[in-house]
TrEMBL record:
Pfam families: OprB (PF04966), SLH (PF00395). PANTHER family: OUTER MEMBRANE PROTEIN ALPHA, OUTER MEMBRANE PROTEIN ALPHA-RELATED. Keywords: Coiled coil, Signal. Residues 90-154 form the SLH domain. Residues 1-30 form the signal peptide. One of its GO terms (cellular component) is membrane. The lineage of its organism: Bacteria, Bacillati, Cyanobacteriota, Cyanophyceae, Neosynechococcales. This is SLH domain-containing protein. It comes from Neosynechococcus sphagnicola sy1. PROSITE patterns: SLH (PS51272).
């Protein structure tokens, strides 16, 4: 018994030592989280070297701030944070990509290095803003394309291996979004190709104009003009099939008869057209189609114009020599037809075609043919497209320097009995000029005319434009046996854009309305050769984008070429645009 106790006493220290060694080995090989926790002070102590693979380049690890908690973070997690893209939670389930996500930062690095996104004015990628996954995928796709371009252009050495790995990782994370975007792009390209192949996508724009006008004319020579309140309204449909063409369908109605001027005793029963205003000419507010035309380009330099109703010579011309004041017969044009442009442009009109070709920035050439509106649609003898009234025009437009335009115009026309020469297509008595100029052989004679014009305009500054023109018409009076009539017109116009206020316009027009220069030689023995001087002044005041008020005066020194009288016309025109 004593021997047994003595042996136990000797063996106990040995067992205790072995147990201690076993426990130490266990601690070093299988640590638990509770046992791995160390105090913050212990973290600052040197850590024994750990066998691991070292990158080819030195690994830059940001300093880890002390953990304020009494329980320190696991050493294993601290080591994981130092490894790029290691043990990072996947972003594939996130609805948005935040600037703090590794994917966002990786893409931002690619953008800054390869410049694959430059969507902002300063050409930078703003990395402080979140984006949707599809926006992120679009940016990633751009960077992938950029890297592929570098590789294809034998500049692959400019692409870093780390960036290729990052792109591969991002591509895996956003494979679904990339596939969706590519599918959408393919579908969009297919639809675009279909539209281009069909070439027919109709777009129609509706615009309107309403004119209210209060006007009065002086009474002279037995006339009895009363102050009037007149109106005109137009609705215009502009349709485009290709984006470069234009089909115009315009409806119009109004109640604006012309003021009466005393007739020349040498041509009784025919009134002068010198008082014709640009918004006049309609009946008793009857709605009509007053313009139907189609314009389309052929190639890069040619433009064709086809008019079925209401075509005018100036519709297809690049310029008529009065760029600021000439708005045709619109509600923002001059008060009178005479003030718009050279009177020979108002010879004829109706249905036909025009053509303009631009050789270069300096020269343009135009051709046109318009048949009278009543004749073009009529199949009877003496009418039709080529056997009735017509006007054929040729013009050379020259822009030798900036802001200067020079025009040379020729026009050949035929006018049946009872149709004035300056009739604008639809007004038998004419829209300007004396009765002798419109009917040099009287209302019972047909006339064939050759007209020549020269027009010029120069913009001295954005606030001042000077324009001038002169026109001569040689009228062959059919069957009269007399000398051809000589009809003249000329004018000088002054335009002052933005006068007193931006958007306003001041205008002064001085010239001679069309007049017959040799009345005695064509059978008007007692007619005067007085030149009918026309002076027109007005001011357009734009109240807003939709409403303009234009007060103005027109002075006629010798109405209908008579030397013993004058006429004054006052107008207040209000134009609504919508």
């Amino acid at each position: 018994m004593s021997l047994f106790l003595r042996c136990c006493f000797l063996v106990s220290p040995l067992m205790l030592g072995v147990s201690t060694l076993l426990l130490s080995a266990t601690d070093s090989g299988a640590a638990t989280p509770e046992r791995d926790a160390v105090a913050p002070a212990a973290m600052e102590a040197p850590v024994a070297s750990v066998a691991t693979s070292v990158p080819s380049q030195p690994l830059q690890v940001a300093p880890v701030p002390p953990i304020p908690s009494a329980t320190a973070a696991p050493i294993g997690s601290l080591w994981a944070d130092t490894q790029p893209m290691a043990q990072v939670t996947s972003v594939s389930q996130l609805s948005d990509i935040q600037p703090t996500d590794w994917a966002f930062q990786a893409l931002q690095s690619l953008v800054e290095r390869y410049g694959c996104i430059a969507g902002y004015p300063d050409g930078t990628y703003r990395g402080q803003r979140a984006m949707t996954r599809f926006e992120f995928a679009a940016g990633l796709n751009a960077c992938m394309d950029r890297v592929n371009e570098l590789i294809a252009s034998a500049t692959a050495d400019l692409v870093r291996k780390e960036d290729l790995l990052a792109i591969q990782k991002l591509q895996e994370e956003f494979s679904a979004e990339l596939a969706t975007l590519r599918g959408r792009v393919d579908a969009l390209e297919a639809r675009t190709a279909q539209l281009e192949a069909q070439g027919f996508s109709t777009t129609t724009k509706l615009s309107g104009e309403a004119v209210f006008a209060i006007a009065a004319a002086s009474n002279w020579g037995g006339t009895d003009n009363q102050p009037v309140f007149q109106n005109r309204v137009r609705l215009e449909l502009q349709t485009s099939f290709t984006g470069k063409d234009s089909l115009v369908t315009r409806l119009g109605a109004g109640n604006s008869p012309t003021f009466a001027l005393p007739a020349n005793p040498a041509n009784p029963g025919v009134g002068s057209a010198e008082s014709f205003l640009t918004f006049e000419g309609y009946g008793a507010n009857d709605v009509i189609i007053d313009w139907l035309a189609y314009t389309f380009p052929v190639g890069e330099k040619a433009t064709f114009y086809v008019a079925a109703v209401g075509g005018a010579n100036t519709d297809y011309l690049p310029s008529a020599g009065n760029p600021v004041l000439d708005q045709g017969d619109g509600g923002l044009s001059t008060l009178s037809f005479f003030g718009t442009h050279n009177a020979i442009y108002n010879i004829g009109g109706g249905a036909g075609a025009g053509f303009n070709y631009q050789f270069n920035d300096t020269f343009q050439f135009s051709l046109g043919y318009l048949a009278g509106p009543s004749d073009a649609a009529s199949p009877v003898k003496g009418a039709g497209l080529f056997n009735g009234d017509y006007a054929a025009l040729a013009q050379l437009t020259i822009n030798p320097i900036q802001d200067f335009t020079l025009l040379f115009t020729y026009l050949n026309s035929y006018h049946s009995p009872g149709t004035g020469i300056f009739n604008y297509g639809g007004y038998p008595s004419g829209v300007e000029g004396s009765s002798l100029a419109n009917f040099p052989g009287g209302t019972g004679a047909a006339v064939t005319a050759n007209s020549y014009g020269i027009e010029a305009s120069y913009q001295f500054s954005p606030r001042f434009v000077l324009s001038a023109w002169g026109g001569f018409t040689e009228a062959d009076i059919q069957g009269s046996g007399t000398k051809n009539g000589e009809i003249w017109n000329y004018a000088l116009t002054f335009a002052f854009p933005d006068l007193l206020r931006k958007g306003n316009l001041g205008a002064l027009i001085v010239g001679a309305q069309p007049y017959l220069g040799n009345p005695q030689q064509v059978g008007y023995a007692g007619a005067s050769r007085q030149v009918p001087i026309h002076v027109e002044a007005y001011y357009q005041h734009r109240l807003n984008d939709y409403m303009t008020i234009t007060p103005g005066l027109i002075y006629l020194s010798a109405p209908d070429q008579q030397s013993n009288g004058e006429a004054l016309i006052g107008v207040i025109r209000t134009t609504f645009e919508f």
